[in-house]
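Lab manual, section 2.4: Encoding a predicted structure.

Procedure: take the sequence of the chain (228 residues), apply the prediction step described in section 2.3, and record the output as structure tokens. A sample record is shown.
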Amino acid sequence: MAQDQQHGRAEETLGGADDNLAGISALDIADWRLRTFALYANVRKLSLENPAEAHSYWRHQRDLMFATHPASALTARDKARFSGLKTADYDPIYRFHVPLTKEGAGREMSVETATDGVVRFIRLGTFDLPEMGQLGVWKLHGYGGGIFVPFRDATAGQPGGSYGGGRYLLDTIKGAFHGVDGTGPDAAFVLDFNFAYNPSCAYNEAWACPLPGPSNRLAVDIPVGELY
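Recorded output:
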């Protein structure tokens, strides 16, 4: 079986005994997850009629969670000066309905980490994005599973651009999912880059996160979503 090796951060979890994270309990994390699942459920409902309205709601709720929730990636010092995540205004040209192709299916990606050892992902296939490129679609090979699509575009690490390590488009184990149109092999995934967001490690290095490998890098600018 073909395999991609990636050195980077592993599962988006607490990375160790950092003082900034000492007050975050398992219940805090569970509540964050529940709120995130509820957030995306409401986003999917609102998007049926007005994706831009859903995006405004998403921005407001994420700002609120980052500013006030005990499981926020922000430290107490960062919360004190927090005025909102840097997020671009909604642009409908970055919303797509894309089928999952079988290209690359079955490949493995191993991510070596300091906190969780080697974390394995199995590729489910590929999203072909018009005039943008391709993104590998992955499943976490372990407890919880889930569809995972990170990406890194040409704005990464640039002034006024996005986080240098990349962003997340879909992460169903955390609730970040925008729906599917149809069923079976003809189903099309809703991919909306306006809802792309930074991994927690972008705001706090004590968190550990998987970052995009070679199969999840785009050569074009994606100037929407959460920036950095």
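Check your result against the sample. The chain has a mean pLDDT of 90.
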